[in-house]
Amino acid sequence: MSSSPRVSNPKPQAAPATPNAVTPMGWMHTARFLTTAAQLHHLPALDTPEIAFVGRSNAGKSTCINTLTQQKQLAFASKKPGRTQHINLFALGKQGITDAVLADLPGYGYAAVAKMDKLRWQQVMANYLVSRENLMGIVMMCDPRHGLTELDDILLEVIRPRVEQGLKFLIILTKADKLTRAEQAKALSIARLQAGGGEVKLFSALKKQGVDDVAQLLWDWTHPKDGAPAAAPAEPPEDEPEALDE
Ligand SMILES: Nc1nc2c(ncn2[C@@H]2O[C@H](COP(=O)(O)OP(=O)(O)OP(=O)(O)O)[C@@H](O)[C@H]2O)c(=O)[nH]1
Ligand SMILES: [Mg+2]
Fold it and tell me: Which ligand sits nearest to residue 79's alpha carbon?
């Protein structure tokens, strides 16, 4: 990544003394578009902690980002799978001072994408997840009606070494409005078993379920009370990253 300019951001400011001046939801609403890139080396190298939204195509990643940030079209959401085709970065932080970045990634597993395009994307994504230095957390979006799929499991394997080194990890069970209460409870306990100690939350963009919880968690990740470093160590980028198989 030495070819990319390193963008140094000012250190996050200490929270103001007034308790309500910065809330996780208020912080989320400061989201603004930062940049978009079709390839990893086109992304600027950042010092700011970054949280990536990953998951199958159509799982609801872009909608989740729009719901959390309360902006209708910050990320492009669509009924048609494969809507997001770039890595899109959004900056968060009060008074224009960026203290975290959200990354909306293209979904995987969408059958109607040409094989070469699929392979290219899987490589870009695997390389991003393994080598993005400021990546400090991953939110995996999963439609509980389908559960974690084989591709989700492969992705979990790709990131496992970084999770073991401290990368934060959350599974969001999306479209919870499509499940009954009993189905929600069942999906939650199954996903908790699969998450290997990671957090799992139910979420519905339609019903605004889980919005506060997720905002609070992402805030806690990026504003650690003990001042510990936010990002987990990354591997140097490889020329031939491991592709995610179908
Ligand atoms: N009922 C319901 N529909 C949802 C919810 N979240 C997303 N959707 C719908 O699911 C479809 C896909 O949403 P997107 O946010 O574009 O999904 P994505 O994961 O970003 O998809 P890709 O960009 O293709 O990877 C859209 O029609 C959304 O309206 C939800 O919480 N409830
Ligand atoms: Mg999307």
Answer: 1
In a domain, 66, yes or no: yes
Q: Is the CA virtual torsion 213, 26, 99, 41 positive or negative? A: positive
Query: 83 CB less than 6 Å from ligand 1?
Result: yes
Please work out whether the CB of residue 175 comes within 6 Å of at least one atom of ligand 1.
yes
Question: What b/e readout covers 232-246, taking b as 16+ CB neighbours within 10 angstroms?
Answer: bebeebeeebebbee
Pick the residue whose CA is nearest to atom 2 on ligand 1. 175
In short, whether 72's Cβ falls inside 6 Å of ligand 1 is no
Residue 239 lies in a domain: no
Could you give phi then psi for residue 101, rounded to 5 degrees? -130, 135
80 CA to centre of ligand 1 in angstroms: 9
Q: Which two tokens stand for residue 78?
A: 């669509």
Residue closest via CA to ligand 1's atom 8 equals: 60
In the chain, the number of structural domains is 1
Say if 155 falls within a structural domain.
Answer: yes
For tokens 């957090």, the residue is 199
List, for residues 19-75, the tens digit of each pLDDT value.
Answer: 445 799 999 999 999 999 988 889 999 999 999 999 998 999 999 999 999 998 898
Residue 30 Cβ < 6 Å to ligand 1: no
Q: How confident is the model at residue 231 (pLDDT cuts 50, 70, 90)?
A: low
Inform me whether the pLDDT recorded for 92 exceeds 60: yes
